[in-house]
Design brief:
CATH topology: Rossmann fold
Number of strands: 7
Distance between the termini: 38 Å
CATH superfamily: Vaccinia Virus protein VP39
CATH class: Alpha Beta
Order of helices and strands: HHHEHEHEEHEHHEE
Largest sheet: 7 strands, mixed
Shape: globular
CATH architecture: 3-Layer(aba) Sandwich
Amino acid sequence: MSNEIEIQRDYWNREISAFGSIYSQDKSRFSIWLDKVFRWDMFERFAFTIQNCEPIENRTFLDVGCGTGIFSIELAKKSAAKVVGIDIAENMVEQSTQAAQGEEVADRCSFFHTDLLEYAPDGTFDVTFGIGLFDYIDDALPVLKKMREVSTDKAIVSFPRFWTWRAPVRKLRLSIRGCPVYFFTKRRIAELMKQAGFERHSVAKIGKLHCVVGYCGKE
């Protein structure tokens, strides 16, 4: 793994409890309130992703940077044929695997400790998605190209918006904690999607995020 990936792996192995509690809401009432005020777009991007994965039943999905597995498990519960989640943080993979077993979807939902650029799937997937992934990747193009390569229908991704008041605050906060973070303009996203080989794409602005669907074929 590259030095950048090693840094990210160490960071997310440390932050797994804090990250997981955002979705599980296993925290104080005040912290839950803060999440609803300042992180509402994280919940909206979840809804955006699941909606744009439709149709889900009997289709295959690749979750890049799966975190604690919440997206993958939701798709498996909605009768996806196969969901594969990959993450560079082994603690995330372990927790995701345990969660899938607890939800009784482990027969259709599996997780692996790997980087996408090193991952060699047996075949392609109907849909790939990387939510909260490109916040932490300096060179997004090779990852987008690989997502296009293994997708037959579409890829769903999110990018943190460049021109928001919280961008410099977040950059400073994460830099202090040893985690680089990157931001994107809509124009840069358009360039990346085209260079990655997507026939067309759509962009939805959700809070501090650009949520993007890249289509592999023409209309």
